[in-house]
Amino acid sequence: MPREHHRILMNMLELEDITVDDVMTPRNQIEAIDIEDDPSGYASRFHQPPHRLIVQQGSPDTLLGVLHVRRVLHALTGDELNPETLKENLEAPYFVPAGTPLFTQLRNFQRGRRRLALVVDEYGELQVW
Known about the structure:
The chain is 32% helix and 21% strand. By secondary structure, the protein is of the alpha/beta class. The strands form two sheets. It has a four-stranded mixed sheet. A two-stranded parallel ribbon has the order 5-6. The protein starts with a helix and ends in a 9-residue tail after the last strand.
């Protein structure tokens, strides 16, 4: 894309001024599953959006990873879904520092083929908003 067209598009969308903090989901609205909960309740969480769930252990500060729901749907048809099955299918969480420009992060998503990031502050704590 010619530099002038890029500049016009960026100004139009104001992507250079927007950070990940401006578009993130607040911590209290993040869909998560606690691996210490009763496994019989897991199945009900997989029949509704979102397609990815944060898996935690005990508290929201102990993140184990990100679960793509499609990976465990087969377990619902046969064997009982249990904490071990969840752990085997987790992806490592992808953390992004607060204040990262949105345009930069969108490019990072494309390069890394990722769709979900967790915004953390300077201490590595999950942002509240």
